Amino acid sequence: MDPKPLAVVRAEHGTVPVRPGDEHARIDPSLPREGYVLDCTSDRVELAGGSEAGLFYGRQTLRRLLPVDAVEGEVERVRIEDAPRFGWRGVLLDVARHFMPVHDVLRFVDLLAFHKLNVLHLHLTDDQGWRIEVPGWPRLTEVGSWRAESMLGSRIHGRYDGRPHGGFYTTADLRRIVSYAADRHITVVPEVDMPGHMQAAIAAYPELGNGFAGPVRTGWGISEHVLNLTPATLDFCRQVLDHVCDVFGSELIGIGGDECPTVEWPGGRELQAAFTAEMAAHLATRGRRVYGWDEILAGGAPPGAVIAAWRGTEPALIAARVGHQVVACPDVRLYLDYRQSDHPDEPTPVGTLLTLRDVHDYEPPADPLVLGAQANIWTEHMESLRRVEYMAFPRLCAFAEVMWGPAERDFADFSARLSDHLARLDALGVNYRPLSGPRPWDARPDAPGHPRTLDDRLAELREMTADLR
User: Fold this and answer.
1) Nearest Cα to 369, choosing from 329, 325, 327, 328?
2) Tens of pLDDT, residues 218-261
3) What domains, with CATH codes, occur in the chain?
4) 180 phi and psi, to 5 degrees?
5) Any idea where the Glycoside hydrolase family 20 catalytic domain is (predicted)?
6) This prediction's pTM
7) Are the C-beta atoms of residues 338 and 351 closer than 8 Å to each other?
């Protein structure tokens, strides 16, 4: 939905004709870069933006003023002054666990832009699949982009579907995604996870590993097969990052750094800190900075690294305290693969309960180093865009409200406006989760889940983050 604007002044009576594209638009440098003023109080529509991005968001608002099924018409006389509260309004889309064709990614980009979100974090590689071609390393896609089968539901059940799964993006594909997103004022931040979550790459090139000679991982969870950190392997990582820098214009380049077992390393955790420093130094030669999960704080993250704080709410505060910019994405508040209710027909219910209201009530830490927040969509249990839409919406509508609108929020007011917005999602053909609950065909009895209690998860997180305190 359109996030609640900062200021709305309605005229006493009358309407003004609107034909999108015919508005009188101008750049006003005195406005915030993403801010705008939309004035429909006279006989024509006036739009001022702090930049082209501001004009874009103003046009999104103008679009919402029209009836759901109209591309032009009469709107009430109103003046809206608006600007986002946070500069990073992001969504992670995991295309490693389940590959998403280019046209589906572009469709998802449109839905983010429709909700005034401005960062798409693409999780491109993992143990279960490598989705990006790299010059000179053809087996990454010939071998690493395919797995023999996929798990059905939570890994505790040990069920598999027996069907091969795979796919990858060519360089042209990725350039198209980046350009399409840029036209909608969305920055695509790529992530190639390293030095852990690398079994797909090691399956393609066993010399990158520590003696493992096996296939791309078919089960969910974390592989203990990690990079060997020899000079040749470090050079491989630099080549991968060079190609990523050639394709993506983002200042931040994701290198993951999360969930990296050390059983194959003689030196333990300090080796990962040295590895991260090496990659950060190389990215700096390209004018880029590291974007990594909060695990890279252990042992000291490189200067200038931006931290994606996911293991609960505490790591964001820790990262800011030691001087790092932060994107807050706590799993218990913003992981959209987590179950939406206790209804028995919720598809593959995993993780802690994360309702629409839970997302709406989330507030990022109040610290100047917190750039904003990011909702993460991990796709182990989402094999299609329709499944992604079901898990994402309308919770992403609530997230957009948090990121753009004022800190003071009222769930009843949000809910009243959401009802109208869902009609727009209907018109767009979005497979959102109905507010009344899942429909019978949303259930996945063949892919059972593993619900968790919040108390159990918080206890796990305290143990997981002990090395940061």
Assistant:
1) 325
2) 999 999 999 999 999 999 999 999 999 999 999 999 999 999 99
3) 7-82 (3.30.379.10), 88-406+441-468 (3.20.20.80)
4) -60, -45
5) 86-405
6) 0.97
7) yes
